[in-house]
Write the structure tokens for this entry.
Amino acid sequence: MRYQISGKQIDIGEALQTHVKAELGEVVEKYAQRPTDAVVVFSRSAHEFHCEATIHLSTGLNAAAKGHATEIYAAFEACREKMDKQLRRYKRRLREHHHERIAPVEFGASSSYILAASEDTEDAESATLQPIVIAEMETKIPSITVGEAVMQLELGSQRMLVFRNEGHGGVNVVYRRDDGNIGWIDPRNSK
């Protein structure tokens, strides 16, 4: 597994890098069969250290966790415990559903746009009707099952996930509701 360990405006020493590789490697070995790489970023905000870790699994799913504490090693340990819990749940779900993905997840390319209202405040109504594109980027849409989409939503720190449903090939959305439940939008079933 490849590791990318870095710090935002702080120096990461060899001892911390060795500790991260050993501890994270142990967690990943226990629950994930074929991880591809891990990205760990340390940062500091006032008196607290923050640790963000993302592990890319060979199935195409990502697991992400964050931790914070007053010491950098404690911040990593908090992050590692959350990652351990997420990967344990992921492994349990795979075992319960007797579902083994043989082929990796396929990703289709699409465009993503961020829209903003114009800064001209002459007419409030026309400002809300005339948004301008302020950012455009390429994004990848995975081709997965609904169960895998829900699992990806829970593994990552996302509020919603757009995916291509392997069952029928249509575009679907799963999202985290305000009440804590997961919502699923399948436009094909709206007829």
